[in-house]
Specification:
transmembrane, Spore Coat Polysaccharide Biosynthesis Protein SpsA, Chain A, transferase, transmembrane helix, disulfide bond, three-stranded mixed sheet, 10 helices, alpha/beta, 12 strands
Length: about 280
C-alpha cells in the first residue's frame, strides 16, 4: 500500500515539518504545494527528509476561487508523472494533523482498498444554500477593481447558470482520500471539456464541489464512501472552522477520523504533543 500525501499550504513550515515527521513511514510520500504568492524558500529545508517532494508547477491559490482546483490538478498530474504506483492520494492542508498512527492508516486503507473516500451531498436537494455558488456568476478567482459591483450587475441581467454536460451538482468538504486513478479521472474529465472549466471559473468555492460533482456523475459513484475521515469543528460559525485547542483533546482522542483540522503551532502546541503521545 503506497500513499502520496498531498499538502496544500502557505502557513507555518514548522507545522508541515511536524506533520511529516508524525506520518513518517516507508510507504508514505509527501508532496508539498506552496501557494505561489508566497516564497518557497522557507520550505526548501523540508527536502532533507526522505520521501518529501516540493511541487514545482505551483499555482497562485485564491480563496474560494477556481485556482484552488487548478493547483490540485497540477499536483495530481505531477504525482502521476513520477511513475510511482501509488494506491491512494490523501489530500490535506498545512493546518491538518493526524489523529492516528501511520500503521493504523495503512491497515485502514488496505482493508478498504477499492473504495474512495470523499464527503458529498446533493446541492439541489440537501445543500441548498450552496446552490447560488453555481447558479450565479462569481469573480472570486479575480482581483480587479470593481469586481463586486460588476458581479452584482451581471447577476441582475443574466439568467441563472446551469451546469454543462447535464451534471447534477454535489459537494461538501474539499479534502479527500482517492485512488490515483480516480483522482486522475476528475482531472482528465474537466480538462478535456474547456466549456466546463470556463463554467467552474465563475463559481464560488469550486474546491468544495468539483470533485464530488464529477465523481457522483460517473461510474465511480458506487465506490464512493461518504466520509473523508476528517475531524473538523464548525461550531465557531462562519466560513472557517475552529482552530483546535487542548480543550478538544478528548474528542480527538475518541474520534474514528484519521486527520483533524485546523491546528496552529502558535495557538496550542501542547495539543500536538498530546496527540503524538497517543
Amino acid at each position: 500500500m503506497k500513499v502520496a500525501h498531498l499538502i496544500l499550504t502557505y502557513t507555518n513550515p514548522k507545522l508541515t515539518e511536524r506533520l511529516i515527521k508524525r506520518l513518517s513511514h516507508p510507504e508514505f510520500d509527501f508532496y508539498i504545494h506552496v501557494d505561489k504568492k508566497f516564497s518557497i524558500k522557507p520550505y526548501l529545508y523540508l527536502q532533507q527528509y526522505p520521501n518529501v517532494f516540493l511541487v514545482h508547477n505551483r499555482e497562485d491559490v485564491r480563496w474560494a476561487g477556481y485556482n484552488t482546483i487548478k493547483a490540485t490538478f497540477k499536483c495530481i498530474k505531477e504525482i502521476a508523472s513520477t511513475g510511482i504506483k501509488y494506491d491512494y492520494i490523501n489530500f490535506i492542508s498545512g493546518q491538518d494533523y493526524p489523529t492516528k498512527s501511520p500503521e493504523y492508516m495503512l491497515d485502514f486503507l488496505t482493508r478498504n482498498q477499492g473504495k474512495e473516500f470523499i464527503e458529498f451531498e446533493s446541492i439541489q436537494d440537501d445543500w441548498l444554500e450552496a446552490l447560488p455558488r453555481i447558479t450565479r456568476y462569481h469573480f472570486a478567482n479575480f482581483t480587479f477593481k470593481g469586481r463586486y459591483r460588476l458581479e452584482r450587475l451581471i447577476n441582475i441581467f443574466t439568467p441563472k447558470r446551469k451546469l454543462p454536460e447535464d451534471l447534477k451538482p454535489y459537494g461538501k468538504s474539499m479534502f479527500w482520500i482517492l485512488s490515483i486513478d480516480c483522482a486522475k479521472y476528475v482531472v482528465d474529465y474537466v480538462e478535456s471539456k474547456p466549456h466546463l472549466e470556463r463554467f467552474f471559473l465563475f463559481t464560488w468555492g469550486s474546491d468544495e464541489f468539483v470533485f464530488q460533482t464529477v465523481l457522483m456523475n460517473s461510474d465511480y459513484k458506487d465506490k464512493l464512501v461518504n466520509n473523508d475521515y476528517r475531524y473538523i469543528d464548525w461550531s465557531a460559525g462562519g466560513s472557517h472552522p475552529k482552530t483546535l485547542t487542548i480543550k478538544d483533546f478528548a474528542a480527538l482522542k475518541n474520534t474514528d477520523d484519521l486527520f483533524a483540522r485546523k491546528f496552529s503551532v502558535d495557538a496550542d502546541s501542547k495539543l500536538l504533543d498530546m496527540l503524538d503521545e497517543l
